[in-house]
Amino acid sequence: ITQSGETADTLSAIDYFKNKTCKVISIVETFGTEASRISDSTIRIRAGQEIGVAATKTLTSTMITLVQLALYFNFDLNRSDIKKISSIINDISKLPSSISYILNHESEIRKSSDNMSVFSNILYLGRGINIPTALEGALKMKEIAYLHAEGYPAGEMKHGVNALLGSKMPTILIVPEDELFEKNLGTINEVKARGSKTLVITDSNSNDLSRLSDDLIVVPKINNFLSPILFIVVLQIIAYHTAIILGLDPDK
User: Fold this and answer.
1) Whole-angstrom Cα distance, residue 122 to residue 166?
2) Does the pLDDT value for residue 78 go beyond 80?
3) What pLDDT score does 31 carry?
4) For the chain, which terminal residue's Cβ has fewer other Cβ atoms within 10 angstroms, N or C?
5) 211: Cβ contacts below 8 Å, ≥ 6 apart
């Protein structure tokens, strides 16, 4: 996976695997680059050129491409019933309207950025497939707003990072309505018990979440395999507006 198709260490990896006679598929934005020339197959994500240094649309487009590739392998190997695959494909087609919904509520997300911009340290928590979502949210806050942000698995929060929580360190939690929902509610309670302000990003309309959250952002409900894409868009917008509030240019 290489956005530019020219990253030196990625090209070295391709050469290594080709020498081992492995087949190589490269997922790139720019066709005709070195990675696409030396790979056996190339998939273009077709996101368009990034303006800023921080990867935003190329990340989410790569994620969607990887889901589609996984579905292709799944179908080709007869690993799943056609109904399940069709359901996920149908939800992929809903992504544009779901992201449009988020963008149409950008003013509400900006209020969350107002709240975050007064802090120097922010903790991001996620469980399961949303651990990388938390890491991405923290990375964007560091890259764009120059604030110290740390992404962490919610299940390991009690093993050290909870000692940092308090009135000077808020917590952003990714809480989808899935099999880990109750555990996430427990984590929010633990965070609040230490005096940390909570911003919860979710696809649930749970009253418990509304009660526990100091700030709440609800995205459209979609297949759990795809929900990290919607959560990531929200986290990117939060970092963007935090940078602007702090007088920084998010494109540079």
Assistant:
1) 11
2) no
3) 82
4) C
5) none
